[in-house]
Structure formats: structure tokens, C-alpha cells
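Job type: complex structure
Entries:
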Amino acid sequence: MLYQRVRRRFGTAPILLDGPVGAEAVRRGIRWRKHGMLADSEAVARIHQDYLAAGADLLRTNTFGLNGRIYLNVFKNPAHMAHIGAPGLADLADRLLDRAVALAREARGRSGRDDVPIAGVISPLEHVFRPDRAPDYGAAREEHGRIADRLASGCDLLLLEAFGTDRETRAAVDAAADTHHPFWASFAVGESGDLLSGESLAVAARYAVERGAAALIATAAPLADVLRAHPVLARLGQPTGVAPLCGLFDPPSWKFEFHPQFAELPDPRAFAREVRAASNDTAIVGAWCGATPEHIAALRREVPSG
Amino acid sequence: MAERFYGPLRGRLEAGQPVILDGAIGTEILRRDVTWADHQNLSRPEVILALHADYVHAGADVLSTNTFQLSKRSLLSHFCDEAHMQRVGRPGLIDRPEASLRAAVALAVEARARAAGNRPVAIAGAITTLEWCFRPDLAPDDNAAMTEYVELIGILADAGCDLVLVETVNSVGEAVVAARAARQVGLPSWIAFVPDEEGRLFTGETMAQAAAALAAERPDAILLNCAPPLDCLVGLRELAPQSPVATGVYPHVGRFDPPEWMFTDEYPPAGYVVEAQRWRDLGATVLGGCCGTTPEHIAALARTFRPS
């Protein structure tokens, strides 16, 4: 099983994550609609391949922020969506989840890198930077359960990415644990180093570990904030990592779902050196939104290969 | 200045003569193969200018600015709060909405200057509910809404709008606050509601309730928009007998395919005019188009209904 190869790396050499697909697609001028997977699927596959060429040890599916809510939220209710919406919106997210897994696998095959595991990304159901909009546990558990089951069948592990509230972390963790698939948990942190919601990172991360999370990552914030959070994770006895924001969020003036547009990207070499210098002892190294294949390649030069 | 352009149109409204509103802005940007991830007022002004000019040439009496949902709140909705925006957001984001609002008005004014000749064409600052237009459950409280509407409408007035068009409104409460804010700023207002299939507001309130509540705020027109033509017709049947002011209709055609639009040929311009005749028969004076409509739809309306 591919995941076992990654697990064996813990304690010997850091694992380098790939970069974001959505932010890179937007940077390349692709219109951000349907996660790029209908009109621009070849471009999405190309981005995966570019991250592999840059030296990533793990490939993430293009499923960050992908769930049925991103379509339903812009209608009054399901009946209104059926009345004025395009045909097929009700199950579009499910179809795109399947497509994302297929594209990641296709890119891996084309790159001749069948040794690289694919992580199925599960993310907050509402906007990643709006913890106040996180659903209650029951709704989140049900929705994350469906996503986890769907991704688990085609992925080598699940990555719960950038969770910023305690209740939704628990819901996603329970959903992932119930698939009996290996899973990692990453947390969106705030300036204090706690969850973005202000709730305790230690409490949420401990719950993830108790339910079987095999690694913990601090993410979705500037490097300084991620580094403030990391020691909390490191105390829990599992492999840990950092994946800081790379550049600055530059959202659209239209009010739709999370739109991965980032600006003022740092110089790749300087970014990689700064990240590596600050996270020399972590088992996992990566970069969150804004990072490009050039940033991952620069990190590869700083992070020893296994 | 505002009266120079809007005064003659107000006279037509009061006389029950048709006034032609323009068609879609956002979906027309898409149809011209430009993303609407941003309003493009600052990044692709030539696209916005050209589509406004196309609507003037089509015969529109009123141009709506490319400012739907453009507000400080929209940008802030992508962050935890303003402090978070400053920490992880691009510098200057908080000032971008006002810059884009002003640029949008300037583009509409310029299109009028280039294309309208001596014809009076009014510029309507187009705004919508402060939260998502189809989600009355997200609406802010009245005090917060009043503050934000006064600020938004104040910018539009200062930038050169002749009236404000508050569109796709989903509740009586927010409509009243927006109309009151316009009155406070001193800009004429048109209030457009999005009707459901039964001709009610998305809150379940009736058109009669909406018309009664707005009477004290004195908008110049109450309209229906951003629903299929048949839903608007049902809504107009409820609204027209109750409205204390002029009424109007500008439905969408096609299907919402978030974050974009699916264009269909269900209502080509000739068929759209057939629908519009039904609205006229019920007394509607403002006729235009919402998402999915094009300059060709507006040209067909103008040829058929605008007094020569």
C-alpha cells in the first residue's frame, strides 16, 4: 500500500507536500468555475504533473472547498436551485469529487510516479476563513461522511485540510475515522496560534489523534502564526508539519465561495529557506495557497529527499 | 445635473409611458468571455464601457452600473474580520469597493456621453441586498443595513448617478431600509424585488405588504427582477393593483450555473417582447432585462415599446 511508504519515511526524511491546485489554476489564468474540472481538466492534470516534477512526495486532490454547499448556498433552497439553476447542480459536487480523484491518478500515471500516494482532501464545508459559518456537528458529520466515503475509494489517504473550528474538526475526524482509511488532519490557525475560531487547537488536535489521525499540520496562515501553533501539535506525539500561506489572499469583489486568488507571492527561494529554517524538525513540510510549482521545487532543494 | 437626465424619464413614468431599462451586466461580461471573478471596472474598463454603449445604442433609457453586490461587506465576507483581512489579505482591499464603485459610475457616464447624443439617458447605481440576494436568512439587522446603505448610495450619488436601483431584494424590511437610505442621501430610488413562483417575496411576504410598506419611503418605481418571466408575471399580477408608484419588470432568461450563467434560447428577443406585452397589459412601465438578457433583447423592447 502506497501510504505505508510515506509512513515509513516519518522519522527519516521530511515529506514534501505538493502545492495548491486552485490557486495555481487561477494564477495561470484559468476561470475558476467548477474547480476547473469541466472546461479545464487538462490544465488541472498539468498542474498536478508540475508539482510532481517539482519533487512533491504526495499529491492532493483538487477538492479543497468542494462540496454541495458551494452551489446550494447561492440559492434560497434546493427547490429554488431546481427551479432556476442549471441542470445537474444537485449532484455536481459528487461528480467533481470523482473527477478530481481521477485527474490526480491520471497525472500520477502520466508522470511515471506511481510511488506517490494521493491524499483525498476534505475541507471546511463553508468558506475556510469563516469559522462563524461552520455548520453544527450533525450536519457536518453527515456531509463529511459522504465526501470521505467517496474520496477513500480512490485515494491512498485522506487529508482533512485547514479546519478552523472544534465542532467541524470533530465531525470531519469522525467521518474520516469511520472509513478506516489512514488520515491526517490540518488546522487553519489564527494569529494566536489557536484555531481560526479562537478555540483551542490543542483540544481539537488531541481529538483527532485519539480518533486515529496519523499526522497533524498547521496551515492557512502566515508562517509566524503557523509556527506559533506547531509546538501545540508537536506535543501530541504524532508526526507534525507546517504548510504556511504563501502570498496574500486577493478575493474577488463578487461574493461566491472561496475563490483561490492570491497576490504578492514571495520569491520561491527566499520563501523555501525561511520555511525550512523555521521548521527544521518537522516531519512534513509544505506550502498552502499561493504557492506555485516553483515554490515547491525550491522547498525540494531545501528539504532532503528520503 | 441628475434632473437633466432623469427628469424626463420620471415624467414618462408618471404618465405611464414605457421606460426602457438596460439588460444584464454581469452575465453579459461572461458572454463576452471575461471572468466575473472581479467586477472588472478597474482591470478591464473597456469591456464595461463597450457593453454600456451597446445598451445605449439598443435604446435603453436607463443604464445600470456594474456594481451589483459591490460593497465593503462583500470583500469582508471572505475573511474572519477586518483584522484578519489586514493580516492575510492583499493591502488596500478595504478601499477597493469604493474605487470600483466610482470607476463603474464613471464608465456608465462616459458611455452615455459617447453614445446617447441628445437623448436623456439616466445612470442608475445598481446595488442589491447586503448579503446574498437569494438568502433573506443572512440579512443584517436594520441599523447595520441603514449605515451601509447610506454609505453605498452616498458614494453612488457623489460619483454621478441619477438614481439608485436596489435590485433582487428578498424582503420588505431590507427594501424599506434601502429606500429610506436613498431618501436620506437625496437620490431617487427604484426598488426591485425577486419574486418566487407564487409571486411572493423570498421571505413569504406578499407584494401587497411590500407596496404598503414602501409607500412612506416614496421610491419612484417598484419592480420585479431576477426570476423567470412567468414568475415575474405572477408577481406583477399581485403588485400592480397595490403599488402606489410605477411598476416594472426585468426577468432573467437562462439558468444560474454558479459561479456563472447558462445561456439558453428559451426567450430569444422576439419571444421576450411577447412576454413584455403581457407586463405592459398589466400596467408595467419599466421594461428591461436581468441575467442572461442581451443588447438584442433591449433593442427589441425599445423598438416595440419606447415612445418615438
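Summary: The mean pLDDT of chain B is 96. Residues 154 and 197 of chain B are 34 Å apart (CA to CA).
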